[in-house]
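[agent] plan:
  1. take the single chain provided in the ticket
  2. run structure prediction with default settings
  3. attach structure tokens to the ticket
  4. add a short note for the reviewer (M.T.)
[agent] executing step 1
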Amino acid sequence: MIHDTIGHAGLYYPLGQGFKVAFGFLEHFDPATPDGRVPLDGENVFALVQSYPTTPAAERPFESHRAHADLQFLVAGVEAIYYSPLDRLTETTPYSAATDIALYRGSDDIPLVMRPGSFAILYPHDGHKPCCSWHDPASVKKVVVKIRL
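[agent] step 2 finished; step 3 output follows
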């Protein structure tokens, strides 16, 4: 798990071509981009632009992915993404290759407070609970870039 701000994006280019493509897109992201899927490099790298209200952490499951890393970038609003290593979580929905997701329950270990311009990189071993309210519900706009591993 990595938590940083977009001003440091260049530090993460060495993670690979997929990350370079993803950060290049985010560094020039237009907040007026409508919600939906944006192809960046076929199925290897694509962005999901999302707008939604945050909800209490107790109402959300943890998740993990195997085929892709998540690069979650907050455009507007404030949200918390709770992080926990998978070995501290209990699987509730087995992994589906079709959707590249497994769901879990567990205690909210580490809050990553996301504000405009911040991002989190989440790998397959990183359980994460996105879309959570930080103190109060908020409307957010976020881009999740999926990077094939």
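[agent] step 4 note for reviewer: Residues 13 and 59 are 35 Å apart (CA to CA).
[agent] ticket updated
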